[in-house]
């Protein structure tokens, strides 16, 4: 593009990059709930070198039964659900966690997430930016509730119901 | 044309740049970046000079780098 324009820039990674970062958009889809809208952003995190016992105490005191293992840049390395949090207290997070969990980008529709989490029997899934930084933890109960509400609005049957 | 990243997009927008989505109008209607103008590629040459201010920076984007 020149056409007499002298200051022209190309945002090469484009809309996909913007959406994957969880930034706001405008348009018809912006009114529909997506993974990034429903993910719980207050999910407790932990470091790989912490001990399970310390993390368990902190996580459960906060009313949670899950934690996401991240590095100093909040890049996701693993997930600890109830079963992993019940490991022996001296175990390192790195040894106890479920490594490399499936992560989803924040723009994925809730309808898709509901179907996926039901089919794959996932209770929770981290939502991350395209470079792996944690945005929040998507809980299946939240996803199913929101998907059901959407379906009721549309007069359709909710996934999994 | 200079390639820029997300942070530079945000900085240029704050400084008054114009943002142009060159994807088809239907894709723009579904999702576009805040304050973006729809100017699909096939209309770009014919309409850019009437729609855009040549004195201000212009950022163009599509879906991704592919």
Helix content of chain A: 25-40%
Name the overall outline of chain A: flat
Q: Which structural category fits the helices and strands of chain A?
A: alpha+beta
Strand content of chain A: 15-25%
What is the fourth-level CATH superfamily of chain A?
CBS-domain
**What overall form of chain B do the CA principal axes indicate?**
globular
Judged by helices, strands and strand pairing, the structural class of chain B is alpha/beta
- Overall radius of gyration of chain B: 12 Å
**CATH architectural group of chain B:** 3-Layer(aba) Sandwich
The biggest sheet of chain B amounts to: 3 strands, parallel
**How many structural domains can be distinguished in the coordinates of chain A?**
1
Number of strands of chain A: 7
Q: How does this structure look, described?
A:
The complex is a heterodimer of chains A (161) and B (66). Chain A is an alpha+beta fold and 161 residues long. Chain A has a single domain (14-154), classed as CBS-domain (Roll). Chain A has 7 helices and 7 strands, in the order E-H-H-E-H-E-E-H-H-E-H-E-E-H. Chain A has helices at residues 14-20, 35-38, 52-61, 82-85, 93-96, 110-119, 140-154; strands at residues 8-11, 45-46, 67-70, 76-80, 98-99, 124-128, 134-139. In chain A, strands 2-3-4-5 form a 4-stranded mixed sheet. A two-stranded antiparallel ribbon of chain A has the order 6-7. In chain A, helix 6 packs across helix 7 (140-154). The longest helix of chain A is centred in the C-terminal third of the chain and has 15 residues, at 140-154. Chain A is flat. Chain B has 66 residues and is of the alpha/beta class. Chain B has a single domain (6-61), classed as Rhodanese-like domain (Oxidized Rhodanese, domain 1, 3-Layer(aba) Sandwich), CATH 3.40.250. Chain B has 3 helices and 4 strands, in the order E-H-E-H-E-H-E. Chain B has helices at 6-14, 25-30, 41-51, and strands at residues 2-4, 18-21, 37-38, 58-61. A 3-stranded parallel sheet of chain B has the order 3-2-4, with helices on one face. The longest helix of chain B has 11 residues, at 41-51. Strand 1 of chain A pairs parallel with strand 4 of chain B.
């Amino acid at each position: 593009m020149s056409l007499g324009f002298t200051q022209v820039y190309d945002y090469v990674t484009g809309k996909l990059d913007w959406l994957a970062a969880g930034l706001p958009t405008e348009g018809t889809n912006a009114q529909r709930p997506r993974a990034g809208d429903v993910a719980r952003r207050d999910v407790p995190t932990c470091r790989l070198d912490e001990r399970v016992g310390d993390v368990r105490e902190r996580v459960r005191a906060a009313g949670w039964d899950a934690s996401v293992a991240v590095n100093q840049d909040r890049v996701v390395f693993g997930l600890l659900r109830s079963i992993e949090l019940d490991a022996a207290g001296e175990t390192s997070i790195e040894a106890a966690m479920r490594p490399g969990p499936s992560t989803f980008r924040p723009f994925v529709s809730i309808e898709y997430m509901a179907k996926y989490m039901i089919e794959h029997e996932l209770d929770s899934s981290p939502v991350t930016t395209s470079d792996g930084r944690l945005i929040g933890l998507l809980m299946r109960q939240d996803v199913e509730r929101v998907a059901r509400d959407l379906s009721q609005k549309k007069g359709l049957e909710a996934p999994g119901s | 044309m200079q390639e820029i990243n997300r942070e530079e997009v945000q900085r240029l927008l704050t400084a008054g740049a114009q943002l142009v989505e060159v994807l088809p109008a239907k894709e723009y209607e579904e999702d576009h970046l805040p304050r973006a103008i729809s100017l699909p590629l096939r209309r770009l040459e014919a309409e850019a000079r009437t729609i855009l201010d040549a004195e201000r920076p212009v950022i163009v984007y599509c879906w991704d780098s592919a």
